[in-house]
Amino acid sequence: MGRHRAGEQRRHQRITAGFVTEVFERNGLAGRFMSRDVSAGGLFLETGSTFLAHGDDVKLNVVVFGDTYPMRGRVVRHGPGGVGIKVSHANPQYYRALMSMVG
To answer: Which of 60, 76, 95, 99 could anchor a disulfide with 86, C-beta 3.0 to 4.6 Å?
Structure first.
């Protein structure tokens, strides 16, 4: 499930998974998006556009198997079809849920 691209150095194992994620900006709910890749340290969201600016702080509600995990993060990357979010305040239960998927 986890994978690394050549030349990448990641602290956390990445999982290809689609979880519904609510993203909140200063003005409230920015939208609900699907994740493409997730890890304990961040996630890539398929936003369809890059309306979030690099460096924006966001609140997240990630839904994994019916459980909602609130977290905070920062936009660190724009990519094809979405944005990369680095999680700054991870939810310990979210981490356990991801680890149960890795086995």
So the answer is: 76
